[in-house]
Amino acid sequence: MGPMEIVLIAFLVLLLFGGKKIPELMKGLGRGVREFNDAKNSVSNEIKKGMNESSEDSKES
Does any domain span residue 13? Predict the structure, then answer.
């Protein structure tokens, strides 16, 4: 994707949503990305915690 395509997409977004709606859209997008990353980190931590617990159980046996 070249710079001309990015400019064209940005222009179309500006035309469709207007200048006042774009900050709201970006704020919503940022919230969505943040929630996704939080959920991803939570799942990753749960997996690590489960792996640590299973390795401790095998050491005790």
Answer: no
9: in domain? no
For residue 13, what are the contacts with CB-CB under 8 A and spacing of at least 6? 22
Q: What is the Cα–Cα distance from 29 to 47, expressed in whole angstroms? A: 27
Query: Domain range spanning residue 48?
Result: 19-61
What is the count of structural domains for the chain? Answer: 1
The whole-chain average pLDDT of the chain stands at 88
Percent of the chain with pLDDT over 70: 95
**According to the model, what pLDDT value does residue 60 have?**
66
